[in-house]
Each structure stands twice: as C-alpha cells, then as structure tokens.
Design goal:
27 strands, Rossmann fold, five-stranded parallel β-sheet
C-alpha cells in the first residue's frame, strides 16, 4: 500500500525550493504623494521609510520596500514615467491636482499599478469623491495605525497579485475579509495581518534554521479583501478549494444597494456549502450575535474593548494556529498535539471514530497547512485519504506520510538544537548555541545536497576524500552516513601525513559497496613513504591536474568538479591495482 518516501512526494524539496517560487511579486518601491503638511503629520514620529523598516523587523519580515516621496501630481507622473513603482499611496490634496484626478492620470500610464488613497478625515473627501471619477483609486483608508497600516497595505497588494499562482502552485490558503468602511478596515486589516504573521511564526517548527523559517513565511495564508457582496462571492468561488476562513462585516453593499444583512447572507451561503469552515462576523450591532450563532459563526463586537484579544482567539481556536484538538464525533476532547512530532504520535493511538471524524472534515490538512507544511497538507487532504476504506490502513498511511516528510525535510539541514524538540531519528545535523556553524558541518550538509541532486539526475560520481569514509571519528575521516553518498559510483580514501591511521578499505559501508559493486580505492598521499597497513608505497594521484579543472561548486571543504569528457577506471582486485585515466579523442 505504501510508496517509498522519496517517491511519495516527487515535488518535495527538503531545501524548500517550493517556497522560493512563492510570492513572485513583491512591493519593492512605493511612491508616496503628499503635500508638505500631510508629510509632516505622517512623519512626526519618524520618517515613513524608517518606520516601515522597523515594523518589518519587528514582525521578522524580510525585504522592506523603498519609499520615494513627491509633493505634487506633476512630480508623481514624472517619477512613474521614469522609474518602476509597485504601489502608489496618495493623500487627497497636493499641489496642482487631487487624488482622484491623479489616479486617473496614473492609470492611463500604468493601468495595473495599484493606487491607494489615505485620508486623515473621511468626511473631508466626501464632497470631492461625489463629484469626481473614482475609478483611478483602488481603495481608500484612514490614516490611523501608522506604519502598521502601511505594512498591511503592502502585504495586501502582494497577496492580491500572488494569490492565483501561489494557490495553484502550493495550495496556499486564503482568508477572505469583507469590509466596506474605510474606517473599520483601516483598523482591522493591520490587526488581521499582524495575527497571521505572528501566529504563523509561532507554529513554525523550532527545529528549522532561520533561513528556512523566513522562506516558509511565504506560505502564510493570503488575505483577500472585498468591499461588497459580489466581490466577496467572486473570491469565494475562485478560491473555494483554498479558503481557510472568512471574516465579514454585517452591513455592506449587495447588488449596488446597502444591505444591513449582507454579511449574514454571505456567511449563510458559505455555511450551506461547507459545514466546518471557520466563519467570523464582525459587527457593532449586538443583535447580530444571535444571527451569527444561528449560521453558526463566531461573533465579535467591533466596539468591544477586548476586540484584539478576541480576534487573536479566533485565529488560535478556529484557524488551526493553536493545538490540534483530537475529538470524538460528539465533540468530546480526547487529547491535544502542539507540534508535528506530537501530531504523529497521537495519530498512532487515537480511537478510530476520532480518526475518521477529522479526516473527513479536512482538519488534518488545515492544521498542517497553518504550519506552512505545504506538501504534507496536500498529502493529508481529504480527497487523498478518503479513498482509503479500511480505517487501520488510513491510520498507517497518515503516520507514514507525516514521518516520511519529517525525515526528508531535515536531511541535510543544520537545525537549531532544542532539548524538547530534538529527534535523533530524523535530524542529521544540529547546532547547539547561537554561534556560526562550523565549515565541516556545512560541508557535510552540502555533500548530502549534491548527492541528492546528482541522484535525481541519474548521475553517479567519484568520491575522493581524506581518511575513512563513514568513520564516526572526524579526526580519522569523513563522518557521513550512506544516505549522504548513496549515488556514488566509486570511492577513494586518501591518507596524508595528517591522518596516520590504518586504511578502512571500505568496511564502514562494506554491505553497500559489495552488493552494489562499488570500487573502493585507498591512495597513500604521504610525502614521507613508509609501510602502513593497507597502503602502497608508490601510489600517485595527479592533484595538480585535478585542481586545474574549473569546479561546478567550490566550497571551503567540498569541491565539485565535472570533467568535459568521461574518465575510465580499471580495477584488479586480485593484485590489488587500479588506474583511472581520462579518455582522449583519437586524432584525425
């Protein structure tokens, strides 16, 4: 029933290649159009650029965008014609024009460039917006949350652009947020992003190194914001397989008319199709609590002094960022899992009815996806596991997939040591403390990566190195496991004046090399020739020629060389003698 762990996930890469492909579009350059007075108000607590960078650092995000400020519409148009910008943020009034006319002018030059209007007072622009063509403005926000709002705007623009590609490529989840009020969305959108980022960071496996934690943040849920019923419905229908949850206002336009129950109607429509999707109704009208409960959906009062804490609880309790709570079909709690490792352990022992209950409702996949385990979430999706009829086969399949991917993900990774999370069965390299990882450890990790790359390409290789391959003592050789060099075609161990030990002659991997017919050669590279067990006195390796070949990769401890033509190895095990030479084309 099971497949080998290296074939079960052909698109899985322990070095997180799939994460490199996510979030292809990033806002790198922002054009801020504001009068000197507006700029003074916005920057009285420090420059916009500095505050955005500080906010990015506080949330452990990478690549804060650059901000260019101009004070007139004419300057803005000139900048847009001469330089690439990913986002324009404008204040309502500036020298020579207003935001609505500027937006129209920008759209004529760059139709797909997002233009966002930020105001200090919504009422101040009402007369202007009623007289002007608003089609040049993509959205309006109230300046209320400083740099938090700017970061949310940047991330939301990125999410809208990347959503289609990232959901198809990696099943990245989507949260739909519906709010027509500029005042409310200016407060709640930053709060939602802050929770998404912080909760995603909090559940990422602590065994990962920092580089991979940052990469996996790219798989956080996307936030798609709609301002009316039709827009929200379009998002839901387009991204339905990936919708992670819905956060909705109660009152917003439906069929071009303000509908006080539009949020109730929309959440009810979704609930009729998906009975266990997390739904949240945000409303300052307390009578909507009963309506939300009848859907059923979670209700939060916008006017509550604890609204931020309640929003955080929704993410933890309903969107999978907290513990996985194993329950029986009657909702009775059995046990909990806080980490992927605990999750695997609990899958082995929970009752059959609990296993089937969660599997059929996609709870396993959603919880794992909240931890940015993209491939594992795909393999645990109900469309896959529901095909398994026998419950014990389903349990074995789930445990196998979780363990196989935990093992594959850690191979070649230098992880941070934690006494609570350490698992010697799946961790090859562990860093203790905060200092730099030694070059030898990086070399071993690199060797594993090269082995996997060459193996995938169907290429064997010649391995040359000092001392015994597979030795547990790094002073006697290279402490690799067979899985680190499994694609090798032949092995040479070199002995020098620094390594004064008997030759291993391949005994560390004896079963592997004998069964696969892999030659294992020992070369005496000592300058002072002497009798040493297993070493000849007249061995020769042309290092000068070998080092003259341009390397494919050249590190401190590992050098990968690919010859322009094949080489020939001839071995005589009876003598024992061997020779390796490069074939040359025949002249003429």
């Amino acid at each position: 029933m099971f497949e080998e762990s290296d074939t079960i996930v052909p698109d899985f890469d322990p070095h997180f290649k799939i994460f490199h492909e996510l979030m292809a579009f990033k806002v790198m350059n922002i054009l801020l159009v504001s009068s000197p007075y507006d700029a003074f108000i916005m920057e009285e607590d420090g420059s916009i650029a500095t505050r955005v960078i500080r906010e990015y650092q506080g949330l452990n995000l990478s690549g804060a965008p650059r901000v260019t400020r101009v004070s007139s519409g004419q300057e803005a148009i000139k900048q847009i014609k001469n330089k690439r910008f990913d986002l324009v943020i404008t204040m309502p009034f500036m020298s020579g024009t207003n935001a609505f006319d500027l937006g129209l002018a920008i759209k004529k030059i760059k139709p797909n460039l997002t233009v966002i209007l930020i105001v200090h007072n919504i009422r101040a622009i009402s007369p202007l917006s009623s007289k002007c063509d608003n089609s040049g403005i993509d959205n309006i926000f109230l300046w209320c949350c400083g740099s938090e709002l700017l970061v949310a705007l940047v991330k939301n623009v990125e999410d809208h652009v990347n959503a289609v590609a990232d959901t198809k490529r990696a099943m990245v989840r989507v949260i739909i947020y519906i709010e027509d009020s500029p005042v409310d969305r200016s407060f709640f959108l930053p709060q939602i992003y802050k929770e998404v980022v912080r909760q995603t960071q909090s559940v990422l496996d602590e065994s990962l190194n920092e580089k991979h934690r940052l990469l996996r943040m790219r798989a956080r849920p996307k936030i798609l914001m709609a301002t009316d019923y039709e827009h929200a419905l379009s998002f839901y229908e387009s991204f339905r397989p990936y919708v992670f949850g819905i956060i909705s206002d109660a009152r917003f336009p439906r069929e071009c008319t303000m509908d006080r129950d539009a949020g109730i109607r929309f959440l009810t429509h979704v609930r009729e199709q998906v009975h266990d999707l997390p739904l949240l109704l945000l409303s300052s009208e307390t009578e909507n609590r009963a309506k939300a409960e009848s859907i059923p959906a979670v209700y939060i009062n916008k006017s509550s002094p604890f609204v931020v804490d309640e929003l955080r609880s929704f993410f933890i309790d309903h969107l999978g960022f907290g513990d996985f709570v194993f329950r029986l079909p009657d909702k009775t709690e059995i046990c909990r899992a806080n980490t992927i490792r605990e999750f695997e352990e609990k899958l082995n022992v929970i009752p059959e009815e609990s296993l089937r209950y969660h599997a059929g409702r996609n709870h396993f996949s959603n919880w794992v996806m909240a931890r940015s385990e993209i491939v594992l979430a795909r393999r645990l999706h109900k469309e896959y596991i529901s095909r398994i009829k026998r419950i014990e086969d389903m349990r074995a399949d789930l445990v196998f997939k979780v363990h196989a991917l935990r093992r594959l993900r850690q191979q070649g990774i230098v992880a941070r040591f934690s006494i609570d999370d350490y698992d010697g069965e799946i961790m090859d390299f562990v860093k203790i403390g905060d200092g730099s990882v030694g070059g030898k450890a990086r070399g071993l990790a690199f060797m594993w990566a090269m082995n996997r790359k060459l193996s995938s390409a169907g290429r064997s290789y010649l391995l040359i190195g000092p001392g015994r391959w597979g030795s547990a003592d790094p002073w006697l050789g290279i402490p690799v496991q067979w899985g680190d060099i499994s694609a090798v075609g032949a092995i040479i161990e070199i002995y020098s004046d620094l390594i004064r030990a008997d030759a291993s002659q391949g005994r560390h991997f004896f079963q592997n090399i004998t069964s696969l017919g892999i030659p294992y050669l020992t070369v005496n590279g000592r300058k002072i020739k002497e009798r040493v067990a297993g070493l000849a006195e007249d061995d020769y390796l042309d290092w000068k020629w070998l080092l003259a070949v341009s390397p494919e990769n050249d590190g401190v401890y590992v050098r990968h060389v690919r010859l322009p033509q094949p080489f020939v190895m001839i071995c005589n095990g009876k003598k024992p003698e061997s020779v390796i030479y490069v074939s040359r084309p025949v002249a003429g």
